[in-house]
Amino acid sequence: METYTEQEVIDGCRRKDRTYEEYLYKKYYGRFLGICMRYAKDPQYARNLLNDGFVKIFMSVKDFRNEGSFEGWMKRIIINTCLKYVNSTSFKTSRQMLRNDVTEEKESMVVYNEALEHIDANEVLALLQQLPPVTRAVFNLFAFDGYSHHEIGEMLHMSVGTSSWHVHNARKILQQKIMAKNSVYESK
User: Fold this and answer.
1) Tens digit of pLDDT for each residue in 66-88?
2) How far apart, in whole angstroms, are the C-alpha atoms of residue 115 and residue 117?
3) Rounded Cα distance, 37 and 43, in Å
4) Cβ atoms within 10 Å of 107's Cβ, excluding its own
5) Measured distance CA(25)–CA(129) in Å, rounded
6) Interatomic CA distance for residues 118 and 178, integer angstroms
7) Residue 117, pLDDT score
């Protein structure tokens, strides 16, 4: 695969040159699919989100002002595409009831390193996809994408406390699932 500078790719995409669009798609496919996989219910839907995101990137590349990172700009479009899915009607009908308060639990949320020794990245991704949809989205935004609870609340139209509860709930569920997987490996 030939290599181009970032500016050549941006200019090529602005001209709607398929060579540059294909280059950009292939270069970021894996990285952005990973983001979509964290939000989607299955790999096929993740690919649909990814493709929708790239269509938006190609349609709006003319609006990129060369201020800041081009990759960061594209990543934001991909995340917004995923959030549109999170806020969609079909998603809302399948989501769990939101809690407006944070339940303080005294239990420790520590996952010991030994439990993680037997789990690879694909298994962790599979565990993430088992989380309830809203909890998965909030956890992704907080843990992987670095948004604050305030920012998440604004994006998903929920309170800061609800966002915090979803992160806490995701950690609790993931801890239980990882410990259960670990106990399976220990019994072998």
Assistant:
1) 899 999 999 999 999 998 887 77
2) 6
3) 6
4) 7
5) 24
6) 9
7) 55
DSSP the chain: -----HHHHHHHHHTT-HHHHHHHHHHHHHHHHHHHHHHSSSHHHHHHHHHHHHHHHHHHGGG--S-S-HHHHHHHHHHHHHHHHHTSHHHHHHSPPP-SSPPP--S-----HHHHTT--HHHHHHHHHTS-HHHHHHHIIIIIS---HHHHHHHHT--HHHHHHHHHHHHHHHHHHHHHHHHHHHH-
Q: Pick the more confident residue, 51 or 94.
A: 51
What whole-number distance in Å separates Cα of residue 72 and Cα of residue 18? 22
- Measuring CA to CA, which residue among 173, 87, 167 is closest to residue 135? 167
CA dist list (Å): 71 to 19, 27, 68, 75, 81: 18, 11, 9, 6, 15
Q: What is the rounded distance in angstroms from the CA atom of residue 147 to the CA atom of residue 139?
A: 10
Nearest by Cα to 59 from 21, 19, 26: 21
pLDDT band at 180 (very low <50, low <70, confident <90, very high): confident
Predicted confidence (pLDDT) at residue 175 exceeds the cutoff of 50: yes
Gap between the Cα atoms of 143 and 83, Å rounded: 15
